[in-house]
Amino acid sequence: xxxxxxxxxxxxxxxxxxxxxxxxxxxxxxxxxxxxxxxxxxxxxxxxxxxxxxxxxxxxxxxxxxxxxxxxxxxxxxxxxxxxxxxxxxxxxxxxxxxxxxxxxxxxxxxxxxxxxxxxxxxxxxxxxxxxxxxxxxxxxxxxxxxxxxxxxxxxxxxxxxxxxxxxxxxxxxxxxxxxxxxxxxxxxxxxxxxxxxxxxxxxxxxxxxxxxxxxxxxxxxxxxxxxxxxxxxxxxxxxxxxxxxxxxxxxxxxxxxxxxxxxxxxxxxxxxxxxxxxxxxxxxxxxxxxxxxxxxxxxxxxxxxxxxxxxxxxxxxxxxxxxxxxxxxxxxxxxxxxxxxxxxxxxxxxxxxxxxxxxxxxxxxxxxxxxxxxxxxxxxxxxxxxxxxxxxxxxxxxxxxxxxxxxxxxxxxxxxxxxxxx
Length: 423
Fold this sequence. Notes:
Layout: H1 2-13, H2 18-31, E1 35-36, E2 48-54, E3 57-63, E4 77-83, E5 88-99, E6 102-110, E7 123-131, E8 136-146, E9 174-177, H3 184-192, E10 200-209, E11 214-216, E12 222-225, H4 228-244, E13 252-258, H5 275-283, H6 290-295, E14 298-302, E15 305-306, E16 329-331, H7 342-355, E17 360-362, H8 374-382, E18 385-390, E19 392-394, E20 401-404, H9 407-419
Parallel strand pairs: 1-2, 4-13, 4-14, 14-18, 15-19, 16-17
Antiparallel strand pairs: 2-3, 3-13, 5-6, 6-9, 7-8, 7-10, 11-12, 12-20, 16-18, 19-20
Helix pairs in contact: 2-4, 4-9, 7-9
């Protein structure tokens, strides 16, 4: 458990953006012998591990060497779905602004971020610079560069009665003194990666908290880190796929990490797009055969869930509270904000039983609407039975979140059992 928690911390530290997350996952897949499937190239059939990358989205799968039916239609797929993005502050196309003698960076809120959690933190900046020919150059300034300063209490004596922030005016990071000049930020970032600023046509950049992941608690049983939502699940999914690839099951294990979940998934790289359907159709033997293949398939949608907050217990359903280190939680919602149904729940509980790990159940309080994730989108788009699960965390959507040290290990064991379950 300690080694896995440290590996998760290392994974998060090198993944400040979806693009960096995908790059680190690909590094691990290649190290294990997986080979890239070019999206625009000829489809490669046959046994072995493959992966496909589109921007901040990654798909990977493993075809067993001795399939029960080489033509594919009778082969069930076991899909692990997660997302690579996290709430943050995204840099605007024209980032160079300032006022009152300060140089600032224009940003907009990406996803449902807890705005106040970004105040008074040392921030880096990361993402990708795109040349005029369409090629991309990753960039990651992992040292203190930016800061969103809070107003001193002397200038707002009522702040502790309720902080009110205006996203247009109060969340702009400072990064120096002087007068803002158009092109300053991109020139600086291009210099960080030895790129001529004149080659940069566009960019995708976000800020990120620089405080490293850390163990805490009397017994060091908790892990504090940025982007646990949802890099904890991506880390688990890659580990489970690699473990499933060493299994002798005839099912095809698949991993998908989508971008843009935090903003609704409606994009070319999101769960509402066609990418997963295209890959699964090919894996299932083509369009005519995919109906039977999809009917034999199941999806585990993994996203973090709410841990019971000791200071706000009234916000939780008293019979369905989840706690860290008590196992991943099955997520259930009558209005299909989660895709779990009884047969899906049975498949999850079977996986937990086979793996020897505990499980919990999360259901939101009737008067406090819950969020959603990629599970209902996959179930709706593909008709594949899907079950939603996740490890419990506190401070979800904060710049820094908290989970139990043991839950990543519980989740990995259960996910591996799910990806290899032939039933």
